[in-house]
Design a protein that fits this description.
- The chain has 139 residues and is mainly α.
- The protein has 2 domains: 66 residues; 73 residues.
- Helices cover 78% and strands 0% of the residues.
- Helix 1 runs antiparallel to helix 2 and helix 3 runs antiparallel to helix 4.
- The two termini are 28 Å apart.
- The relative contact order is 0.11.
- The model has no long low-confidence stretch (mean pLDDT 93).
- The structure holds protoporphyrin IX containing FE.
- Protoporphyrin IX containing FE binds next to helix 1, helix 2, helix 3 and helix 4.
- The site of protoporphyrin IX containing FE has 22 residues, from helix 1, helix 2, helix 3 and helix 4.
Length: 139
């Protein structure tokens, strides 16, 4: 079975890939770009599958170690709710950008999909911060 060390390394790499997603997603906009392009886009899109795999595997290990219900495990209810909302938001975050990158929808819809990607990304960023705050509280 996978040991604690390997699991924690997985969490750390997953967290690091999330930080790279945040930096490569938001920094170009903060620096005045209208959309991602060049190395920003290449880095963002390259780390995206790595982040997605770490998130999926990490979510399974997290549920295994802390339990499915809000009252199981040692983590506070609040921290668990935050993780669940984060995991659920990942679905529109990814699907919106995947659907916006092909020609299935007209360009107005593609813009809306990009906005969904943008706003869910902000929400995930805030939730990650809240989790780091609330995960210190044991129940
Ligand atoms: C894991 C799957 C993800 C994929 C495949 C992905 C892909 C992309 C792509 C291709 C763009 C450029 C869109 C464009 O300029 O037309 C983009 C933009 C962006 N991404 Fe992601 N991304 C993912 C996850 C994330 C995450 C986790 C965050 C941050 C929490 C994030 C934050 C952003 C931001 C802020 C933008 C700029 C949005 C805008 O220009 O309005 N992305 N993403």
């Amino acid at each position: 079975m996978i040991g604690n060390f390997k699991r924690n390394m997985g969490y750390i790499f997953g967290f690091m890939s999330f930080i790279i997603m945040i930096i490569t997603g938001f920094l170009p906009l903060i620096l005045g770009e209208k959309v991602l392009s060049g190395w920003w886009m290449i880095s963002h899109a390259t780390v995206a599958p790595v982040f997605s795999i770490f998130l999926a595997v990490g979510a399974l290990f997290w549920v295994k170690s802390t339990g499915f219900g809000f009252n199981n495990g040692s983590e506070s209810k609040c921290a668990k709710k935050i993780v669940w909302v984060f995991l659920i938001l990942f679905i529109p975050n990814t699907l919106s950008i995947l659907f916006s990158m092909n020609t299935w929808f007209p360009s107005a819809t593609q813009y809306s999909l990009l906005s969904i990607h943008f706003y869910t990304a902000i929400a995930m960023f805030v939730l990650a911060g809240l989790y780091l705050n609330f995960s210190h509280n044991k129940k």
